[in-house]
TrEMBL record:
<dbReference type="GO" id="GO:0052621">
    <property type="term" value="F:diguanylate cyclase activity"/>
</dbReference>
<keyword id="KW-0808">Transferase</keyword>
<keyword id="KW-0472">Membrane</keyword>
<feature type="domain" description="GGDEF">
    <location>
        <begin position="438"/>
        <end position="571"/>
    </location>
</feature>
<dbReference type="InterPro" id="IPR029787">
    <property type="entry name" value="Nucleotide_cyclase"/>
</dbReference>
<protein>
    <recommendedName>
        <fullName>diguanylate cyclase</fullName>
        <ecNumber>2.7.7.65</ecNumber>
    </recommendedName>
</protein>
<keyword id="KW-1133">Transmembrane helix</keyword>
<dbReference type="InterPro" id="IPR043128">
    <property type="entry name" value="Rev_trsase/Diguanyl_cyclase"/>
</dbReference>
<feature type="transmembrane region" description="Helical">
    <location>
        <begin position="312"/>
        <end position="334"/>
    </location>
</feature>
<dbReference type="Pfam" id="PF00990">
    <property type="entry name" value="GGDEF"/>
</dbReference>
<keyword id="KW-0812">Transmembrane</keyword>
<dbReference type="InterPro" id="IPR000160">
    <property type="entry name" value="GGDEF_dom"/>
</dbReference>
<keyword id="KW-0548">Nucleotidyltransferase</keyword>
<dbReference type="InterPro" id="IPR050469">
    <property type="entry name" value="Diguanylate_Cyclase"/>
</dbReference>
């Protein structure tokens, strides 16, 4: 794997790891933010539901009291009943509006309103009758119907409580304390209702009323202990602790103690020395501390949810912001490393590869920074200069070697291959023909009466004749053919992939060209020369020497046949020759 790919792979992996960690942090804070966002309306809705329960319970008190009196009861008590009903209606309307997005809760709230209207209708019907016509069974039934409204509303509170707890489980202790306080408020109202009828008619308590008081008093103690237990995590909240002490002192101490006195009188004489209105005035103030505690706990839970929401929003924005900043820094750092370190290293690697491959046209960047990378680039400049000088020297040496090789392989007079070079290259061609049974033809040529040319015109003229003959041979041979001066006035021509007949045609063509050539000597004389040719084809010769010997025999026959002749002799058939003159 290349360094560039490795760098990007590691960079991408680190970036993904960073994004995963940042995503986990953001996801965690988003979860807290989402829970707190959902818990706030859930707590508010629960608070509205508990208020409805309180108002419904408060409405039962005036109704119960009026049912024990004559139809022409005091206008103030009737006004109190109307105020209680109005408060219940307002609380129900507020709750119905708040939960309208939840069809099941809205339906339960509407059902409570219908049940409440039916219960009120029964009470109003009884209140319209004189007291003597009100049967106690009917009164008890009406009160039970009114109590059933509270029971029917309990599922709404349970549902809203479950929604609030599921929104934020950390609020479960406080919400449970608020529910217990609401239950304590209902029990307190029911205990007070036990004494309503006996005090109004000034009679002793019945056995059922005694049993109800004792039972409800025990529930009060249990509920208060439960509230204390649930609020233990909030001991550092002075307001909550103060409200809890208020319930203990004002209700459990004063109000419940007052009922204990009434209970003692009710079990004996039934002489309470106070009216129903006076009983309410003495009992209700202590009871008011209970909803105050409930509302304070809910307010604390709501404030806690708001604080969580604000903190979560802050941490969410901070984490997202810091994550983006860190990501930008990471990308910038990766870019700097790539530009200042990785790319120069890759460029240097390419330059070294180019230098080792002697590709000196590759441009070397000019270092822009005075650092280690810049020093390396300057060193590469020096190395390139030294490499260029070295390559130049090596090239000169190779050229000299090539020149010496050419001089050693070339006949100095004709420029053709010399005898040694012919054998060196001819052995390869002969070996190929011998190994693969390829066709190969050899032509041995000799200039006729060459000695007479030297004797008559001088050696300089003889040399000129040899050069002209060599040029004619060059014109009539292929690039793959081997053409050499075999010695003196003899020339050798090796023709790979050529059979006897084709070789004969080549020799004949060359013979005709030499015969038709008129050579103008330096002294102005015109000279015409001929040449004799011996042509043989490779058949089963053991080596190149044997093939040349057969060609020499054919040339010998050409000489004795009158010269200016081409003789082709197959192996082993020296008596069968092909000649043309």
């Amino acid at each position: 794997m290349s360094l560039n790919r490795l760098f990007w792979l590691i960079s991408i992996l680190l970036m993904l790891l960073f994004l995963v960690l940042t995503g986990r942090i953001v996801s965690s804070e988003w979860s807290v933010y989402e829970r707190s966002t959902k818990s706030m309306p859930a707590i508010k809705n629960l608070q509205l539901a508990l208020l409805v329960e309180e108002k419904l319970a408060a409405e039962r008190g005036p109704g119960h009291s009026l049912l024990m009196q004559e139809a022409d009861a005091a206008a103030s008590e009737l006004a109190g009943l109307e105020q209680a009903r109005s408060a219940s209606d307002q609380a129900l309307a507020a709750l119905r509006h708040a939960v309208q997005a939840v069809p099941s809760l809205a339906a339960q709230a509407a059902a409570t309103e219908l049940a409440l209207a039916a219960a009120r209708k029964e009470i109003d019907l009884l209140l319209s009758l004189p007291k003597r016509q009100r049967h106690m069974a009917a009164v008890d039934a009406a009160l039970e119907t009114m109590a059933g409204v509270d029971s029917g509303f309990a599922p709404v509170i349970a549902t809203l409580s479950d929604i609030a707890v599921r929104s934020d489980a950390q609020l479960s202790d406080g919400l449970e304390a608020a529910l217990l306080a609401s239950s304590l408020r209902n029990i307190a109202g029911r205990i007070g209702a036990v004494f309503t009828a006996p005090v109004i008619v000034q009679r002793p308590l019945t056995s059922q009323e005694i049993h109800a008081f004792l039972k409800l008093s025990g529930q009060v103690e249990q509920l208060y202990s439960g509230i204390e237990l649930q609020l233990r995590p909030y001991r550092d909240r002075p307001a909550l602790q103060g409200a809890l002490d208020e319930v203990r002192d004002r209700y459990l101490g004063a109000s419940l103690g007052f009922l204990d006195e009434l209970f003692a009188n009710g079990r004996s004489s039934g002489n309470y020395d106070l009216s129903g209105r006076e009983m309410v005035i003495r009992y209700m103030p202590g009871m008011a501390a209970i909803p105050q505690l409930r509302d304070l706990v809910l307010a604390e839970m709501l404030q806690q949810a708001k604080d969580k929401n604000r903190r979560a929003a802050f941490f969410l924005l901070a984490a997202a912001g810091l994550g983006l900043i860190a990501l930008a820094i990471f990308i910038l750092l990766a870019q700097v490393i790539r530009q200042r370190v990785l790319r120069p290293i890759l460029d240097a690697t390419n330059l070294f590869v180019s230098l080792t491959g002697e590709r000196f046209d590759t441009a070397i960047p000019i270092p822009r920074h005075d650092d280690e990378i810049g020093a390396m680039m300057r060193a590469i400049h020096v190395l390139k200069a030294h490499s260029l000088a070295k390559v130049g020297l090596e090239k000169q040496r190779e050229e000299m070697i090539a020149q010496l090789q050419t001089l050693s392989d070339t006949d100095f007079l004709t420029g053709l291959l010399n005898r040694r070079a012919f054998f060196a290259q001819g052995e390869q061609q002969f070996g190929i023909a011998q190994r693969y049974r390829r066709q190969l033809t050899l032509i041995l040529m000799d200039v006729d009466h060459f000695k007479a040319v030297n004797d008559r015109h001088g050696h300089h003229a003889g040399d000129q004749v040899l050069r002209v003959v060599a040029d004619l041979c060059r014109r009539h041979h292929r690039k793959v053919d081997l053409l050499a001066r075999y010695g003196g006035e003899e020339f050798l021509l090796m023709l790979p992939e050529i059979d006897m007949s084709q070789g004969f045609a080549v020799a004949e063509k060359l013979r005709g060209a030499i015969d038709a050539c008129h050579i103008l000597l330096d002294d102005g004389a015109m000279l015409n020369v001929t040449a004799s040719f011996g042509v043989v084809a490779f058949e089963s010769d053991e080596d190149l020497e044997s093939l040349i010997r057969r060609a020499d025999q054919a040339l010998y026959q050409a000489k004795h046949s009158g010269r200016n002749t081409v003789v082709a002799t197959p192996k082993g058939k020296q008596d069968e020759t092909i000649a043309f003159a």
